[in-house]
Write a structure and sequence with these properties.
Keywords: Signal. The chain has 119 residues and is an all-alpha fold. The protein has 5 helices and no strands.
Length: 119
């Protein structure tokens, strides 16, 4: 019974939050998905043992086309290479999943704050 009341409270809280939150624009949701996909690829490269300098070269090349994309990749690379490379497949998959999920969540939170400020 206690678990049900906690679940009900959590749902009520989530509904009350969403009632006060401005919707995140579709373009920002799509940008967060692109960031999430980029974070996944960078951490996948990290866990597969790609040297940081070779991944960095890709960021430099991307930066020639778009400064924003280049800087985004450099940030992802710095963060990914601060995390250990794991030898077990399950730890590698967890590192990849946690990494891209955290970047997606941070992006969504930022987009929500922007929407609320402009809303």
């Amino acid at each position: 019974m206690h678990k049900q009341s906690l679940a009900a409270a959590a749902i009520t809280f989530a509904i009350s939050l969403s009632a006060h939150a401005s919707p995140v624009p579709q373009e920002e949701l799509e940008e967060c998905q692109r960031i999430e996909n980029s974070a996944k690829q960078v951490m996948k490269s990290r866990q597969q043992g790609a040297p940081m300098d070779s991944v960095w070269e890709l960021a430099e090349a991307a930066g020639k086309q778009s400064e924003y994309v280049g800087e985004l990749f450099k940030t992802l690379i710095r963060e990914a290479y601060a995390i250990p490379q794991y030898s077990s497949e399950s730890l590698q998959q967890k590192a990849i999943s946690d990494f891209h999920s955290n970047f997606y969540k941070a992006c969504i939170v930022t987009a929500q704050k922007r929407a609320d400020a402009n809303g």
